[in-house]
Amino acid sequence: MIPHDPGAFTQGLEIRCGYLWESTGIYGQSSFRKTDMETGEVLDLFRLPDTVFAEGFTFLDDSTVCLLTWKEHTAFLLNPWTMTIENEFYLNTEGWGLCYTGEFLVQSNGSSILRFRNPGDFSVSDSLYVTLNGHPQFFLNELEYRDGQILANQWRTNRILFINPENGHVERFINLGSVTPASGGVLNGIASGEDGTLYCTGKNWPVTLLLNNL
Ligand SMILES: [Ca+2]
Asked: Structure pTM?
């Protein structure tokens, strides 16, 4: 494990270009951060306007980040190196989690539906109804795309779901309850490393877990 800023109300986590990137929420405190993958140190921090509650994000390419807001009906495009807002899209739902398949942005909004959006204009291309053994899975939150699967934190649980993007079936899930730190809030951050290691953290957690062989 590596240290994690316990003041970070984590909403999104992703690894890119050798750094661990993070978004944090709360009105007046929302931020996008570049952190060190080995020490957890915050190396750069962009503070969003006080009127914005930041949510999940994903990289579209090495210099473009798409960042959701919760209820502000806006998705920002950021340059992560200059930490500047370069564009924005209208978002017609609540924004929760986001990942990128290389073709589509995949967005959650706390329901059991994932929306596939075109990265050029944020228009909806398709929707995916997520089920486990036929039962809808609600409160889908932070997302990560890895090896052809969509990984999703399920809000207020310690579960990470592994979802088939073709049919929405949860093919398996893991429960991190036994390794969740005693202090802090809910699990809410999944990032996939190049060697397959999953970096997992949560809202106000003191650590980020490094999980292998999952
Ligand atoms: Ca993620």
From this structure: 0.96
